[in-house]
Amino acid sequence: MEIGLLKLPPGPVVMGIINMTPDSFYDGGKLPTVEEAVARGEQILREGAAIIDIGGESTRPGAEKVSVQQELDRVIPVIEILSKRIAIPISIDTSNPEVMHAAVQAGAKIINDVRALTKPGAMLTAAKLRVPVCLMHMQNDPDTMQIRPSYHDVVSEVLQYLEQRIAACVAGGIDTKKIIIDPGFGFGKNLQHNLSLLRSLSLFKNLHHPLLVGISNKSMIGQILDVGVEQRVAGSVAAAVIAVSKGADIIRAHDVRATVDALKVFSAVVNS
Ligand code: 7PM
């Protein structure tokens, strides 16, 4: 797949996650060190990911607010080291223009924004940086999004939002070929909303942009299985396979090897 000038391997690919936050699903409670994060990045690479996503802001409801400086301190040293050591592109999970700019200077190749470039200055900064951007749908903000998510028709409302954000970003100078879209599983959605979006995921292909899906370890899987976050691997992999069967191009995942293996089985069947 090609996203602007960025080349990715053919077929659906996995985006591995490095959470530089104290509430990462992996390092319960403590902030990973730069060394730990770099080691995690090298592991993600070995396990077959095509992209590494690095974020320093927790978007969990009730998470402590981090300043721009804190976010920079968390992610920039890791991006500087990893971008020199590994061949796959790094994406920066941020909504702040200062972080976008510094991350791309440090070697990041993709901007992944759960707020779809709605913060002041974010769209202009992304346009000037000329890197691919992922626009994600979220209802309300991280603190309030899970209080009472409500839609008349979740699928058409998320589609309409992404259509509007694509149009705004193109008008704002972003190359349409560099826009990735994401329905934002779990971001202002209850279980029924998430299931409706996954069931109807193929409709997002009508927007004609690469489609990214992040379901890995989310509460959607926890609710279906009634298990904690450490027991969601198989459920997450199942959801990833369903997503690619409906046209997802990029799967954002914590358990990279398991997800890569599942997508290889999927692709073998499709290409046979
Ligand atoms: C706490 C709560 C920690 C939620 C981490 C999370 C997505 C994303 C995230 C997604 C895109 C997580 C989320 N989720 N970016 N960033 N799509 N594009 O589960 O679904 O990792 S953060």
What would your notes on this structure say?
- It is a single chain.
- With 272 residues, the chain is an alpha/beta fold.
- It has a single domain (2-266), classed as Alpha-Beta Barrel (TIM Barrel), CATH 3.20.20.20.
- The protein is 40% helix and 14% strand.
- The protein is built from 9 helices and 10 strands.
- The protein has helices at 34-46, 68-85, 97-105, 122-129, 154-171, 191-199, 219-225, 233-245, 256-270, and strands spanning 2-3, 6-7, 13-19, 51-55, 90-93, 110-113, 133-136, 179-182, 212-214, 250-253.
- Strands 8-7-6-5-4-3-10-9 form an 8-stranded parallel beta sheet.
What does the secondary structure layout of this molecule look like, with pairings?
Blueprint: E1 2-3, E2 6-7, E3 13-19, H1 34-46, E4 51-55, H2 68-85, E5 90-93, H3 97-105, E6 110-113, H4 122-129, E7 133-136, H5 154-171, E8 179-182, H6 191-199, E9 212-214, H7 219-225, H8 233-245, E10 250-253, H9 256-270
Parallel strand pairs: 3-4, 3-10, 4-5, 5-6, 6-7, 7-8, 9-10
Antiparallel strand pairs: 1-2
Helix pairs in contact: 1-2, 2-3, 3-4, 8-9
